[in-house]
Design brief:
It is a single chain. The protein is mainly alpha-helical. It contains 7 helices and 3 strands; from the N terminus they run αααβααββαα. Strands 1-3-2 form a 3-stranded antiparallel beta sheet. It is globular, with a radius of gyration of 18 Å. The chain starts with a helix and ends with a helix.
């Protein structure tokens, strides 16, 4: 027989999302392990691959992270030689270096591996639908 708190936790969106988050983080860590980077570093590189030269604050918004957190990530990527930052007034623009551009090929592979690892379990349709539902919920909660 299920205990009341277990039922309450299973019916709680907050805890359900946290549980899913932990499991997806584990899959992402495994997929990105070969890059030597945590997934967020890889996501920053993938953003820059498409939108090179954008402000750090835009990266923070895209990744739903604090600007100070992204600044630390960018600093480490700069140290590794994958990105460079250029100050334009109050903005700090981030660009891929040639080394970073080449490295994004490896990051692309990890990104694809991550998608395949959860799609293999959930299926393509369910994965897409779950992402759509979660994005819709996020949009609604942001407007609150």
């Amino acid at each position: 027989m299920e205990k009341p708190i277990e039922k309450a936790l299973d019916e709680c969106l907050f805890f359900s999302v946290k549980k899913l988050d932990r499991l997806l983080n584990k899959l992402a860590d495994e997929a990105f392990r070969k890059t030597g980077l945590a997934p967020t570093y890889g996501f920053i590189l993938l953003i820059l691959k498409e939108k090179d030269g954008i402000p750090q604050k835009d990266i923070a918004q895209m990744l739903y992270s604090a600007p100070s957190t992204i600044a630390r990530f960018v600093e480490k990527l700069e140290y590794k030689g994958y990105v460079k930052t250029v100050s334009e007034g109050r903005l700090s623009l981030v660009y891929l270096t040639e080394q970073g551009r080449q490295f994004t090929r490896e990051v692309d592979g990890s990104w694809e591996e991550l998608h395949q690892s959860y799609k293999a379990v959930l299926g393509n349709k369910a994965s897409k639908e779950l992402a759509e539902i979660m994005n819709e919920a996020t949009d609604k909660l942001q407007k609150k």
